[in-house]
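Memo to structure team: turn this sequence into structure tokens by end of day. - J.P.
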Amino acid sequence: MQQPTEIIVLSDGPANVIQGAWPDRTIDQVTRAELHAFRVDAPKGRVLVCAGGGYLRLMHDREGVEAALWLNGLGYDAYVLAHRLPGAASPDGVQPFDIALIDGLAALAKIPTDLPRFVLGLSSGGHLAGTLACQRGADLAGVLIGYAPINANHRDYKAPAGKPDYPPAEKQAFYDAWPIGVAAQPHGVPTCPVFLAYALLDEAVPVEHALNFIKTARDLKLDLDAHVFGKAPHGFALRELAGTHGSWPELAARWMTEKAG
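Reply from structure team:
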């Protein structure tokens, strides 16, 4: 198991405890915001990695560290974000709905801008990645989003129709505040290039999330590369790649090279 080059502390609180054994460790209670830096010699760019976990915990290895090591192999510095969770217990009561965004912006402020910067997010981490890409001054070469609930968890765009809200209330409030890639919500449309990778038959994150973004990209002529894989499972990440979705890492790497200039 490769250790991070450095852990950069972004907020007050005790150090996070990582549960389980490599390569399936998780962070179930995020006690402070941290960046786990994985650096390489002579990087060609820098990537903030946002792991998923439904905003209830973080899949630290599967969707964080493994992505960082893959990016290292491509020549990028990678920074895995441990962000606090909306509605989770905190010394002041509960964390606010936008705490993950606050921590993500703090993370970007720590990542140098001398080289092209990207954000990569999987599952709920993809929603956070998309939200960060919508912020003014984010200074990103692009954002990569995989099987993420970016818009169809919003109260007005639910898919399937009638799907119940997700507890806690703060989590649902974050989805409602930031439906990414919906033309009627212009504050939620990234201005940087976007790469999407989704699973057609995903029941956890229906493909409508991607389709809504694709329609917006067509109408607004956005810079979007979108890939929908017929047999991919939810959460394929860099492991479950027995199918055409096994090509997504190569497609993403080529896309990043192009966008980095």
